[in-house]
């Protein structure tokens, strides 16, 4: 089959690379337009677009994927099937039905119908899920609601961050999509409708999602820190500074001070009282500075015992 690939971020790359090694040629790649990226905000190509340019594959970077140019390109390239991984735009019916098979497939980072939406990895960690996975589904008008051809499950590590989990899921998606493409080519794919009554949703991460509320339990705060690491980074306020906490562990047990107050004594780890137990920060970052182990951070910016850490909205 002749494939078109729709994708944008680093998460998409393992699937694209896997397809490029396979027997079905990728004849067209569609990605987001060049955007300002990195600390210097230099306008540059998306990770997927960079692969297309490197491999010399026809590349489209439309502001809107619904432009007539995209549908025409799919038809001129005689695309049989479209593969979508983290593309980032709504795909209209004209695009969905342009391949000769009449549909696209999508690799989504959850066990559908749970965690439909933009942030399934972060939301699964926030919810305290012990497992997640990837689902390969048909792309329909309703977001992440199409019939599923293949699902693969993995456990979420006890201390695993969203970044680490995303890397594992990206590799899992690559293998699941490659297998699904082969099943389609061989006429042995089976589509299983989702049960809409079991659907849960994973809206995109907003700034308030990363704000630490010290009245929460230590275990919930530790999950939030993992879910927001490495980006956008869970944050709180220390004096006039907003600081990001990028790693922490929860310690159960009673606290002797209000939520958000620090315990900082010689030869003991920094602890922050929470609504239930202590949170022990492990890695901290000030705005514009590098990430530091908490011991190194405190050497340059001591926090007095009993000092408050507070919301920074």
Question: What does this protein structure show overall?
Answer:
- The chain is about 25% helix and about 25% strand.
- By secondary structure, the protein is α+β, with helices and mostly antiparallel strands.
- It folds into 2 domains: about 5-200, Formyl transferase, N-terminal domain (Rossmann fold), CATH 3.40.50; about 205-310, Methionyl-tRNA Fmet Formyltransferase, Chain A, domain 2.
- The strands form 3 sheets. It has a 7-stranded mixed sheet with strand order 5-2-1-6-7-8-9, sandwiched between helices.
- Helix 1 packs parallel to helix 6 (about 160-185) and helix 5 (about 120-125) runs antiparallel to helix 7 (about 220-225).
- The longest helix is centred in the middle third of the chain and has 24 residues, at about 160-185.
- The radius of gyration is 22 Å and the shape is elongated.
- The mean pLDDT is about 95.
């Amino acid at each position: 089959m002749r494939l078109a690939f729709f994708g944008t971020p680093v998460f998409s790359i393992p699937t694209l690379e896997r397809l490029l090694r396979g027997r079905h040629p990728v004849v067209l790649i569609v990605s987001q337009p060049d955007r300002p990226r990195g600390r210097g905000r230099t306008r540059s190509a998306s990770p997927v677009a960079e692969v297309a340019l490197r491999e010399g594959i026809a590349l489209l970077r439309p502001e809107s994927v619904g432009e007539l140019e995209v549908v025409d390109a799919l038809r001129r390239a005689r695309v049989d099937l479209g593969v979508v991984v983290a593309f980032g735009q709504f795909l209209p019916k004209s695009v969905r039905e342009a391949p000769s098979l009449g549909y696209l497939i999508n690799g989504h980072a959850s066990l559908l119908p749970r965690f439909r939406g933009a942030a399934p990895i972060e939301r699964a960690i926030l919810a305290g899920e012990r497992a997640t996975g990837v689902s390969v589904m048909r792309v329909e008008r309703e977001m992440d609601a199409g019939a599923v051809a293949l699902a693969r499950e993995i456990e979420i590590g006890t201390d695993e961050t969203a970044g680490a989990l995303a890397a594992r899921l990206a590799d899992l998606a690559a293998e699941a999509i490659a297998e699904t493409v082969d099943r389609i080519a061989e006429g042995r794919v089976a589509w299983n409708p989702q049960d809409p009554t079991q659907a849960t949703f994973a809206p995109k991460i907003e700034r308030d999602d990363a704000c630490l509320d010290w009245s929460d339990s230590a275990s919930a705060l530790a999950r939030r820190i993992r879910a927001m690491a490495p980006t956008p980074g869970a944050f709180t306020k220390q004096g006039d500074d907003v600081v990001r906490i990028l790693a922490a562990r929860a310690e159960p047990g009673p606290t002797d001070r209000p939520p958000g107050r620090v315990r900082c004594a010689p030869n003991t780890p920094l602890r922050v009282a929470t609504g239930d137990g202590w949170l022990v920060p492990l890695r901290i970052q000030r705005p514009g500075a590098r990430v530091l182990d908490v011991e190194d951070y405190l050497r340059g910016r001591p926090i007095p015992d009993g000092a408050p850490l507070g919301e920074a909205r």
